[in-house]
Amino acid sequence: MKTVATRFAPSPTGPLHIGGVRTALFNWLYSKNKGGKFYLRIEDTDKERSKDEFKNQIINSLKWIGINYEDSEYIQSDKIDDHINVANELLKKGMAYKCYCSSDEIEEQKKRAKQKKIPYIYNRKWRDKSETDAPKEIDPVIRFKCKVEGKSILKDLVQGNIEIENNTLEDFVILRADGSPTYNLSASVDDHLMGMTHIIRGDDHKINTFKQIQIYDAMNWKVPSFAHIPLIHTIEGKKLSKRDNASTLDDYSKIGIMPNALRNYLLRLGWSYKDKEIFDLDESIKYFNLEGIGKSPSKLDINRIYSMNEYYIKNIDENDLFNFLLTYCETFQEKIPNLAQKKIKNSLHFLKNKAKTLEDIYKNSKFLINDKVQIEKEDNKLLDETAIKIIKLFSDDINKLSDFNRETLEPIINDLIKNNNTNFKGVGQPLRICLTGSKFGPGIYDILCALGKEEVSKRLSQIR
User: Fold this and answer.
1) Which end of the chain is more exposed for a tag (fewer CB within 10 A), N or C?
2) How would DSSP label each residue in 62-92?
3) What is the distance between the alpha carbons of residues 320 and 323, in angstroms, rounded to a whole number?
């Protein structure tokens, strides 16, 4: 039995879309599950729109989320001669023909179809005409000679059997007038040359699949198995596009979503295994199958992504979480000084509380990173005479302490509450504002212990 081989084939004409990442993930997991191989093909034949920056973003995105591929990238533009050779072979076989219709003729056909409210299908004018009738001033395109009778059935591994009438497929162009190959020709030739056994892609490619199978049959190539995945929609039920917010991996890494969490979310987006929600990498490979993919579109839900990320923040090893945090801060926020790193690492057990993203942890950590406290304008208004008095009393009391920990701090705060006829918030809030610059943040005992007696005294002395 032939080793399973799958591929992901994006065009570098824009950043890699989240739907594309899920397609790559499903292909990769399927190959891994079957002990096969997964390849990356860069479909860069659109020279005007293809850019190296997008190619690099695609490669880096796959690397970030943990998808690795065999060998180096397969570059489609390097194989154009192979695509053209196949087009010429199809001509010789009588499975393709030169079409001399002018662009005006094609536009007229499209206009008539629109008026009749029917899908446009090229009228096959040059399918059986002799080239002796060809106008000399027009460079022809080459069209594939599609079947015009009967039906074709696609045995889709996700959608089940899909049937179409052959006469609904037009004789599609495989070589343009300038001699360049079109998508359906190039994709078919490349998949054959790469030895692909399974083509797993979005269900917007179903018609392309019927066209490509006809090319395979015409060339007497072994047809791969096909699986079409329903597309990802927005939460409102619209098709997700590159113009939507949070549509690329960069959008998620910037706000501190971790790769393992996003990979787990994308795995579950349209795929299920029993009632299991959390999958580590080994489990993802072990349990993934095409039977678990649903037939309906999935909705991208940012709240579910936050929830998944929060789960990973709470449950992964704190050393791993710390390393993720450092990388995130250095990439998107600031490089953390060594002394602050130590404080953050020792305080991670509470800094991660209620954090949904690495950005939340970073914000919770800023009081440990910044030596100087910048109190927000609205919070400064809360430091009234009573608050200042409590801060002074607290500062005087802690200077008498030889041990600085929760056990020694609790009696001081309890006495301040009792003696000043206030509550825990009345003591904790002004202290938090003075020590961190905001009334929001970690618990007051966590802040005090993380900073230590000397730093707490220093910060409080600046208020008096």
Assistant:
1) N
2) HHHHT---SSS-EEGGGGHHHHHHHHHHHHH
3) 5
